[in-house]
Amino acid sequence: MDSRLRGSDSIFDFLRDHHILIVMKKNISIYLTLGILLSALALYLSFRNVPFADLATYLTTINYFWILPSVFIALISFVIRTLRWQFILGAAHTVSFRQAFHPLMIGFMLNCILPGRIGELARPAILQKKDNIPFSTGLATVAAERLFDIILLIILSITVFASVHIDPALDISFGKYHLNRETLLTIGAGMFKLSAVLIAGIIIINFSAIQKVVKRLIMAMPSIFFFVGSDFKNRMQEKICTPLIGFLENFALGFALIKNPRKVGICIVLSTIIWSLAALSYYVMALGCPGIRLSYFEITAVMIIICLFIALPSVPGFWGLWEAGGVFALSLFGISAKEALGFTLANHVIQIVPVIIIGILSAMAIGVNILKLHATDKLKDR
User: Is 31 in contact with 371 (CB distance < 8 Å)?
Assistant: First the structure.
């Protein structure tokens, strides 16, 4: 274990040390309290019209034996996720499975318990502290990994929209959101535009000729301030322009894998396996839930619809919105609200609780104290 990570070090000590921009409360207890309150409100919005006696009765009829294989399959998908991230990182820096696994699980754990998807920043920060991988490079690999997920989600969404009839009149209200066909199409279109912009940006920054032009423009920035002295311009080049170029180079290095079609193909295969296993985990859990008699394809469609809905701004762990999305998706296949909500709630718990537990164990394994998280102020790549 790296001695730098022992004692009172924490994930946000990493973030503070490297000045990563995050808007947070002064300590983790306040932030967790905020997350719990938001989750409670979200669950209230989702369950306010549910007869709890019926829901409780349904939950007692679930055969929880199926939890074990469902959780096992879900965890295997995280092993494949780790292999994919390790492979993406390998284009810039060689890391072991363990070096990739612990930051990934800590990141997903933080996304489950804290607002703002803080875990996406924690992963490259831990890599920087532990393995001296530049933060911008690690961040780029996280972005590349997420891009593969978005592309697979778009492809699967197109398949769902082409195969499953979604009643235009079906509408489930959740807070300020209306979960309906139009919302799904809007989210899908937004993901498509985002992926197109990301792909274009990745291609642009990986062209050496374009990089040279951008670097020249950055180094020419001080000349805009023609009315100041040369000392100011020199300091600006040293303190702003040169670090910015370093950030750009390191960020481009994180996307180095994109230049290799074979490696891109391998990542697409790994991504397909990840999503297939995630759907299989849902399907296995459904086998133990009365009234949920859907095919693997139908369960996959349910998972995709839930994933699209939880892409909306939501509380930590997607509580409430996940359940509302599950009721909407299952209703497309004639599942009653009581059975849909019971299955979705139980499945939600088994999908995220193991991730939280393993994330905490990973934090302990590398000496990260998640109970002492602090705010940070500004971005600086080293």
Answer: no
Q: Which residue has the higher pLDDT, 310 or 177?
A: 310
Ranges of each domain in the chain: 3-206+255-365
- Residue 166 DSSP label: -
Bridge partners for 177 per DSSP: 174
Q: 355-381: per-residue pLDDT in tens?
A: 999 998 998 888 766 655 443 333 445
Neighbouring residues of 265: CB distance < 8 A, sequence distance ≥ 6:
none
Q: Structure tokens of 226?
A: 């023609």
pTM above 0.90, yes or no: no
Structural contact between residues 91 and 133, judged by C-beta atoms closer than 8 angstroms:
no
Question: What is the pLDDT averaged over residues 184-188?
Answer: 90
Which tokens in the block code for residue 313?
């701004």
Angle, in degrees to the nearest 10, between helices 119-131 and 97-113: 150
Residues with Cβ within 8 Å of 73's Cβ and at least 6 positions away in sequence, in order, are: 277, 280, 281, 284
Structure tokens at 263: 């490696």
**Which single residue is written with the structure tokens 């849909």?**
340
Read off φ and ψ for residue 215, nearest 5 degrees.
Answer: -65, -40
Is residue 15 over pLDDT 80? no
Residue 299 phi/psi, 5° resolution? -65, -40
In the block, residue with structure tokens 């390998």: 90
Asked if 46 and 320 touch (Cβ cutoff 8 Å), the reply is: yes
List pLDDT tens digits, range 119-149. 888 888 888 888 888 888 888 889 889 889 9
Q: Give the residue from 300, 65, 301 showing the smallest Cα distance to 161.
A: 301
Q: Which of 380, 381, 376 is nearest to 116 (CA)?
A: 376
Residue 317 DSSP code: G
